[in-house]
Description:
Elements: E1 3-4, E2 7-8, H1 14-32, H2 43-56, H3 72-83, H4 94-114, H5 116-119, H6 121-133, H7 135-140, H8 147-167, H9 170-186, H10 190-206, H11 216-234, H12 242-257, H13 269-274, H14 278-296, H15 301-319, H16 329-349, H17 352-380, H18 400-411, E3 419-422, H19 429-432, E4 439-442, E5 453-457, H20 462-467, E6 471-479, E7 482-489
Parallel strand pairs: 3-4, 3-5
Antiparallel strand pairs: 1-2, 5-7, 6-7
Amino acid sequence: MSPLAGKFTPSPSLKIRWAVFFTVALLALAVRLPQLGERPMHTDESINAYITGGLLAGEKYRYDPQDRHGPALYILAKPVAQLSGAKNFSGLTESELRISTVITGVAIVLLFGAGVEIFGFIPCLIAALLFAFAPLPVYYSRYFIHETLFIAATLGLILTGWRAWQKTSLPCAVLAGFSAALMLACKETTGIHFFALGLAAVIGWRFQAVKKLPPLRIWTVLFVTFLFTTILLFTWGAPNWSALVDLFRSIPNFAARAGGQGHEKPFSYYARLLNGSWSGAMILMVAVVGFFIAIRNRSTKPGFITAVYALFIFVIYSVIPYKTPWLALNFWLPLSILAGIAVEWAWLTLPKFSRRVMISTFIIVVGISIAHDTRQLVFRIPADEKNPYAYAHTGEDMLRLPLRLDELARQNNLPNPHIAVVADDAWPLPWYLRKFPQTGFWQPGQETGAADFFITSTDVSDALVERLKTFRPEFFGLRPNVLLILWSPATTNSPAGAIPPAKP
């Protein structure tokens, strides 16, 4: 149970507790499944899909230290896609890929059920509800990127690490080492979280929020498990030792990326993102209250450490110039727990009547706000540039491109057309052209040779312009302010207005 100001959070029996969290998890699953394959594939999703497709086709995994993350997402996605019958890249669908992160998002809700003995029933229930229904976690658990799995591994490390520390439990130390390795196999920025968690634990010990440090055998088991699991994951279970060398080589690459590389945002970016909707503003306000409660009441030991961790991780990510909205999930984890601590405080300290009125009002108002924001951001405008979560997102106009190519190929009696793509950055076109096996990709200025159709960016070279004299253009919006041109033979019979081109 979690002590707070000399009192204890009321907690139901074990059976009732798990019945509650399983119910919340099932509701979380129900929220995430509708329209799962309708949102266009983001560039990052399409790259991850391409890697997964190669693994399905029997290719060996190779860790790329330049601009790719670790193998954890593909380890999960491959068997899930195989269960659906996918055998290669061209056979994959959006839903078959995104179901992996949907499952992970639901698993986070259940992990909070395992954290009741550490944080208390009410804080864990509130955190589970926020992860189940709030727009930020719902949106990105329907996104085929590493972030949701990373958050699940982080929560796993916090829960098992605390038990290993407080109970001197070797099995929990093994689980903590595995969770830490899984974090690293998701994102190379794991070191930031290890640093923040370690510093929060030291401060907790210094201010007597915890009274003892783990014995050496706990550290040894945790580190050995972490090292073994890291080797196993990055080498894909094979003697591929170069992957470990590449892992060290990735450090300067990601250190350079922290400088921004076109994704620079001000210090206040994440605060404005979290505060950008009614539900986010209310949850952030309650979490701030929970932060001060946890800092003031050091008797809530895990709550105190969580508050310190939340502060460090928020400041570090805000200072780093490179910022993307999905990284806000790193704050949503501790903020959800802190919001739960604030609700617990209200439950335990306010008079009975005030407690019922305040908490009931809070649940109704926040619940309605969350339902509105989730419906709007996740389902109504998931790829719109007005959506703060749809960052540099592929436009819905891209959904027309393969349909239009298929139509033009039939009209020109081309059952297997040759398609030449000329663009500096072609992603996510490999995903949308995966059904056309005779597709090649070239950089601007390279000689493509003859092709039935060309797809280019707007900056077409003079040499290619000459080749395209007998072709006619149609415009498609790739991303906000980014256009692609589909060049088809001028003899095509269909009228140019059959499918209206995208507006520039």
